[in-house]
Amino acid sequence: MRIALIYRPFSFHGGIETATAGLLSALVRRGEHDIHLITTRAQPKVDGITVHPLPILGSPSVLRQLSFALQARRAVRSGGYDLVQSHERCLVQDVYRAGEGCHRAYLDATGRAGLQVNPHHRLLLWLERRIFTLESARHVVAISGHGKEEIQRLYKTPARAVTTVYNGVDLDRFHPDNRGRWRTETRAALGISEEAWLIAFIGSGFERKGLGPLIEGLARLGDRSARLLVAGRGRTEPYRLLAERLGVRDSVSWSAPRPDVERLYAAADVLALPALYEPFGNVHLEALASGVPVLTSRGAGGAEAVVPGESGAIVDKPEAPAIAGGLGALLHADARKLSAGARAAALPFTFDAQVKRLASLWQSLRR
Q1: 95 with 140: CB under 8 angstroms?
Q2: How does pLDDT run across 29-85, given as a tens digit for each residue?
Q3: CA neighbours within 13 Å on the CB side: how many for 193?
Q4: DSSP-derived pairing of the beta strands 34-40 and 50-54
Q5: Do 90 and 17 share a structural domain?
Q6: Based on the domain organization, do 341 and 205 belong to the same domain?
Q7: Cβ neighbours of 226 (radius 10 Å)
Q8: N or C: which end of the chain has fewer CB within 10 A?
Q9: pLDDT tens digits for range 138-163
């Protein structure tokens, strides 16, 4: 089949971009389809994939989004594809992969629901409604069961038109053996002692991903061995002030995003992502594959990969008392058992399994 994938530029490191690179690499290995990537001029070449760069307006965000959607529609109509799958909210696609979840649910979770005057949010909601009501798509791929339920509940999308396909993770790159390779030197470079019990918060979007409640939970934990490493992009000032006010300033370290994120997992004892809203953060799978237990929230799709007491902890809401309780339980649990449970939890989430599920769906929807 001649398949078009619509996606903004990605790299081979970092979060959802790694997931897309892994998906495309698995498609190339499978060799069953002629894959075309519709993207922008910022995307470098990808071996085995035909890249179609589009001229897109740079700013403001609403014009960038709209120009991408219009240019992608033009490319799709002239491409003669058997099937089009978009990872972006576009005007035309056979399959929309809801990797960013549901924008309406995101606004609800972050307290921004109601009448929207922001033109960027209004455009995303308009595009989303057309997709989830099947006006501009034939099928929707959710990346978690929670996301599938959310889309069906908010937009009345028929259950037959929504399929859950989980992301994959690189089980070789993210491996428990990395601890022996890089734990000591990474901690030394970050100024964190070998004796510290290190909680890692990895990702950008600090408010949405629950950094504030996590810092409050760290303060409530009251264990002097506990340290928090925040590695991501965003405004750190409010959170630095919060840590200082709560008396844990010296227990929190900060790092910019890193392409060698596997070294941060090697240094960590637990990953914490008590998100307000998170469709399925790839950090969940990367940490689990690295043998690092995960504390997350019920509202995060990644909670579906975590077994409480075996590979991590799940809090019902991202609130400080619950987070402190979850961290305390992990701190005093058998670290070796948790690490083994975390790795086992990640094993089903392979790129090959993801591609097999998508290929079956594509075949059923072939024009």
Answers
A1: yes
A2: 999 999 999 999 888 888 899 999 999 888 888 999 999 999 999 999 999 999 999
A3: 9
A4: parallel
A5: yes
A6: yes
A7: 21
A8: C
A9: 999 999 999 999 999 999 999 999 99
Q: What is the CATH number of the domain that holds 271?
A: 3.40.50.2000
d(CA 24, CA 307): 29
Same domain, 123 and 224: no
Q: Which domain holds residue 236?
A: 178-346
Identify whether residues 298 and 358 lie together within a single domain: no
pLDDT tier, 19 (very low <50, low <70, confident <90, very high otherwise): confident
Whether the full predicted model's pTM is greater than 0.85, yes or no, is yes
Q: Is the peptide bond before 60 cis (omega within 30 degrees of 0)?
A: yes
Which tokens belong to 232? 């991501």
